[in-house]
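Complex record, two chains
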Amino acid sequence: MVALGNIAKMTVIYKRSWRFILISQIFVLASCVCIILIPIEVQTLINDGVLLGLAGEEQVINSVIRILLLAFLFAIFMSLSIMMAVTFSEGTADYVRRKTFEKIQTFSFKNYDEHSTGDLMIRLNNDIYQINLAVQLAMRFLLAAPFTIIIAVAAVVMLSPDLAWIFLIVIPLMALVLYFVAHRLQKQFKVRQKKLDATNNRLQENFSGVRVVKAFMRQEFEKQSYEKVNDEYRKAAQAPMKTQYWILPSLFAIIGVSTALAVWVGGQAAFDDPTKVGALVAFSQYLLMILVQMFNLSILMPQLSSADISAGRIYDLLKVESDIKDPSSPKSIDPAENKGRVVFEDVAFKYGSKEGPETVKNISFVAEPGETVAFLGSTGCGKSTLINLIPRFYDVTSGKITIDGVDVREIPQEVLRQIVVPVLQESILFSGEVRENIKMGQPDATDDDMEVAAKAADAHGFLTTTPEGYDRRVSRRGTNFSGGQRQRLCIARSICAKPKVLIMDDSTSAVDVATESRIQDEMKKILTNTTTFIVAQRISTVLLANKIVLLENGEIKAIGNHEQLMKENQLYQEIFNSQLGGLRQEDVA
Amino acid sequence: MSASKAPKGTGQKKGTMGRLIRYLALKKAKLVATIVLISIGSFCFIMSPILVGQAVNLIQTGGTVQQLQDMAVTMVALAITAFGTIFLAFRWLAEITQYALFKLRKELFDHAQELSLNVFDRQPIGELMSGTTNDIDAIAALFQGPLGMIILGLFLLIIIAVAMIIINPVMALVALLVVPVIIALIWGMGRVANPLYKLTQQGLANLSGFEEETLAGSKTIIAYRYQEKKTDDMDTISKDTRNLGVKSQSLGLLIGPLIALATYIGVAIVSLVGSSMLIHGKLELGVLVTFINLSVLLILPLFTIFFNYNYVLKALAGAVRIFKFLDEKPIIFDKPNAQSLPEIKGEVIFKDVDFSYVKGRKILKKNTFTAKPGEAIGLCGPTGAGKSTIINILTRYYDIDSGSITVDGHSIYEVTQQSLRSQIGVVLQEAFLFSDTVMNNLKYAREGATDEECIAAAKKANCDEFINHLPEGYNTVLTDRGANLSQGQRQLLTIARAMVANPRMLILDEATSNVDTRTEKLIQQAIKELQKGRTSFVIAHRLSTIKDSNMILVINEGEIVERGTHAELMDKRGFYYDLFMSQYKGKVSSVLPTSGPAEAKGASS
């Protein structure tokens, strides 16, 4: 049996609920006792009631009343134990889910790099579901099933010892079938899952690439390709079904054969002793009870095993530590007093492990308060990496970054990110009101502040075309806005946060040049004292910067404003000419 | 698949059920055989308690040991038959149900291929996917276990009832009273439970949606210090999920003890009535024993039917949505007597074209222009002006509201989609590639494309070099939508793919995504190569891409506001001029070839 250490640890998290668990188990066992007593009562009804003719009539009535009583008590105890089991399992799931989510919220960028969204979703949903189910089944069957089986066997041993030996055949036989099925199923489920994933992936690709499929008119090809994976899945799904379908016929056969044996042995005995008839009836009922409980166990055990694996994965997640830690003795910084002078001193950075080249190195420059500094260079030259270091999304590998003379690592993250606000490459909005989204960095902002920010970002216009205006709801992933509108809302959000240092990572790529100019002008008016860092692919975006930092292969090749670089740097000229070349003298006249 | 309300009445349910059953009946012979075997197997199984009763009778009325032994042997034979028939029947059922699911999935996929783009554009692909897969899963959940149990349960129930009636009709009435009572109880519970189940499903979808959104926006949350707020949100959502889960699961599981209780009440009643009849000489002990045993056995079919009925409801709900999808018709289709478009020379005429995706919101207004064979036409304008829409209507992804579009004098609505699209090469904004080998991605463009043709196209599109640097060259498998290539390389590859198709006309929607200068040069070269000798439409987000076009169409708010060559448009000093000059942000002086430091000083800012 697999070590169930993890799942056991998990219930210990809920140690304070031992009383609850105890009561629920008492109910469970009580329900078992009730149901076990019924066949005995039936036996009594026959032996001491019916067989005695008229004299036994009273006994019959007594027995029937007792059977009804036991049945009701059974139902009550069982219902209570079910409700307690479900309450406890859902409560456990809720607790684990919240704890796990809380832990994930402490993740840094690096942690997220190492744990894909898909992976985290599986832990939050699938793994927690496995644990939930296991706890519920355990509360209902872990104690009850073996208890019932043992007591039922004991009852038969007591009441009709000459029939008890049949169990010696039945129980191992059923156990064998159940074990064989569970074992084979594990492998077959894995194969089925793989084939299901393949089928779903093919479907996903087809749906995502629908334009390509239609453009090249490859519908027939797609149909054939899907048919293949579809058919493979069909076969893979058939296999576990056929395996599981061993159980019921085996159940039927075992019941039939055992009853036959009971008739053979018990029947012969009944010729001499009529009370054996009652025993015969009781026997069939105990047989059914035992087989059903064995079946329950066969579902419980593999589930415990799955849940243990899931619990292990949750623990692994809970052990993850963020690499960005707050300083033990933080420097007190008043965000209001901050000027925003950012200095990079010989900064180098490398993602991930020890070996391999650094993404950026020998980075040194100064951004004076209120300046606009732009980064230009080819993809992968390190632009985004650099600016991610300022708000400590990643920490430098060597060198240091200071704001107004204070190393960013000595500022608490909560304070640092009030001072340094980014507009990220991907425009993410959250479902809720537009208002909440814009005020995200500064929940106390007034509606006036919000509108000023929205106007500067050229968002106020399209927002006020609808009657709800700022109350308008953003749908999941912000799909009810266009790409350009989302970008502008994100810019508004950053302005509203009143940063001292603003970072714009290719934040106007979906917006046309004219609108971009307008936005840049407005922002300059509102954020006069804000130091701004811009990363862009379009050279057009950086033309007005105070300083343009030209990067290649992670190192600074040149720093200067547009005129200086145009005169002195060949790489810059190349970039400029390829994007904006071709202006003629007569165009400017 | 759009969300749909629950089946309104039993009428719709019956229709859906019938339609679903038709899939099971695809293997008619097997299905019939399965049902026959299940009935035989159930019969054999039910004979067991009946024979026990007969044995008791034998004992009471003085039979021989030999007769008893014969009975036991019969019971063993019946048990083995039960095993054999049910085993075989269920194996066949597995094949039948899986084939039904296979057919359903196949029809879904094949139908999706015929549907028009409006279906794919009206919601995020993720929603369409999860809707489709969830609904099929609901049907599969029914087919893969519960269905067999329900069928078996039905037969057991029928056979028990028939047996009871044959043996002793009065007792049968008493014993079977319990069945309608259970049905009524379950139905009553269903009325309470179903709205609850729906809420629970919604709640789960909500939870999952919240988690996905939070994870996708994790970086934003870090940047804007939103962690605590999100944790608080999760506390609320998680608790709601828990509460709903407790309620709906409890309700579902309570069916178990309820059925057990009802069954044992039935046993008690049978015992009481039967004993009374026996004591007054109206019943034999054996019959009483049989009835008690059968009454207990009733728990099996009652349980398997009612516990699993849930699956039936969920499957039907899923089936309703799937059938809705299957019944949806494409909005773009070939006219009945559509001709094949002969080999295109390349004259394209738009006349007074109006188009709107949504009624009332015109995207294109009275667009009129002529493109001569071999001309390079550039389209530019502010974001959302309608440029990309032109691709959608030229390739008939969508159809226009009014006006006409002709190619070489043939209206594109009088020819087959096949003949039209196979001659137009399209390079889209998002460079979509399949997770297959590079070579297969290239071959995708045209059925029957050879390796040599693909390599030649790759060379022309500046791809050959970087492809050969990949671990397995042309046989390298591209991961998840081409993630092991850079953006620029993916673009080049899609251009190569368009070349393999050797189209007579080209449409290119320029990518807005990040590409470095060097790769950008390669891309522009490749595009020029692709444009040679073909009429081409290039939608530009960077004006430098279309500067050399034979004609530039400037589109603003759906209308063509200016047209001409770059030089003509610049000379006009109009909309295009403003657009072009705004790129320089006023820094024109430093750009001009003849400007030096002296002139720079005096130039306008």
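Note: Chain A touches chain B through 172 residues (CB under 8 Å).
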